[in-house]
Design goal:
Elements: H1 2-22, E1 26-29, E2 32-35, H2 36-46, H3 65-80, H4 84-95, H5 110-135, H6 143-153
Antiparallel strand pairs: 1-2
């Protein structure tokens, strides 16, 4: 009975050891080795940054070489212990505010934020002016012009 219990415990220990051995605790991505929580944190940061090549993709979703470099920078800084805010501030300082996927509403980005509204207003003004021009036809012909037109057409 003791022997069976010992074999059972050994088997359980081996099974548990195998199960934990199959579960990775670190991951290597873009040349940097991180723990799983660090990788998740790096992905959150990368989802807030724009790929400067693709422009409408996040750094995490882009296959561009520059995006890969950005991911490497982010991951190295995560491993170094920088906070999310420090990493994002570093990227903005180094690459400009355009690197942010959702830039803040500051005077520098007003045109970016308000350009759709400005374009809509300008489009409506152009449409309104075009309609007014169509509604006013040419002035009526004077009697001399009518006589001259009759002469030309006959």
């Amino acid at each position: 009975m003791k022997r069976l219990l010992i074999l059972g415990l050994i088997g359980l220990g081996l099974a548990f050891g195998i199960a934990t051995a199959d579960t990775p605790t670190t991951i290597k991505r873009d040349g940097v080795v991180l723990t799983i929580p660090q990788e998740k944190r790096a992905e959150v940061i990368g989802d807030k940054l724009r790929c400067l090549v693709c422009q409408n993709e996040t750094v995490e979703n882009s296959a561009a070489g520059l995006a890969k470099q950005f991911r490497g920078i982010i991951r190295r800084r995560v491993v170094a212990g920088d906070t999310n805010r420090q990493i994002i501030d570093f990227m903005v300082h180094r690459y400009g505010i355009f690197v942010l996927l959702k830039p803040p509403l500051i005077p520098l980005t007003w045109l970016l934020w308000f350009s759709p509204g400005i374009a809509l207003v300008l489009g409506l003004l152009v449409l309104l002016i075009a309609r007014r021009r169509k509604q006013t036809g040419p002035p009526p012909l004077s009697p001399d012009e009518r006589d001259r037109l009759k002469e030309l057409l006959s």
